[in-house]
C-alpha cells in the first residue's frame, strides 16, 4: 500500500516563531523541505497486520481488510433488496476508533456471514445519509431489518462484543 504525498499537501511553516525554532535547530531559518510528487510513504511490514485481542484472551493476527465494493442506485435500494439484516458502520477516514473497527468488522462479517450483511458508509462522502439517520458520533452502527432501523449503538467494540450485540439484538427483537 503506497501513499503519495505532493508538496502542496504538506504546508511549509514560515512564521517568525517557526523561523526562530528552525534557526536554533538548523543553520538556515528560511529553508523548508519540500516533498516531490514522486515521494511515497509505505507502512512498515510490522504494521501491515493487526493483532486483535488482549494478552489474556486468544490473540489473532488479521490480514489487511479487502473491502468488496458494490454499487447500488440508492441506500434505500440496498436496504430493500437485502435478504438479511444489514449492519451499517457509519465512519470517517480520519476517525481513529473507526480505523480500529475495520479489521473487527471484517472478522464479524466472516463470523456472521449467514446472519447479517455488513456495509460501511463514509459520512464525508455521503453526508445526506448521515444526516437522515442523525449520525453525530463515530463510529455509529445501525442494524436495519426489512429496510428500517432496528438497533443503534455508538463507539468501538471488540469482535466478541459486537457479535454478542448483533446476535442478542436479532434474537430478542424477531
Automatic annotation (TrEMBL):
GO terms for cellular component: cytoplasm. Keywords: Disulfide bond, Electron transport, Redox-active center, Transit peptide, Transport. One of its GO terms (molecular function) is enzyme activator activity. Pfam families: Thioredoxin. InterPro entries: Thioredoxin (IPR005746), Thioredoxin-like_sf (IPR036249), Thioredoxin_CS (IPR017937), Thioredoxin_domain (IPR013766). PANTHER family: GEO12009P1, THIOREDOXIN Y1, CHLOROPLASTIC. This is Thioredoxin Y1.
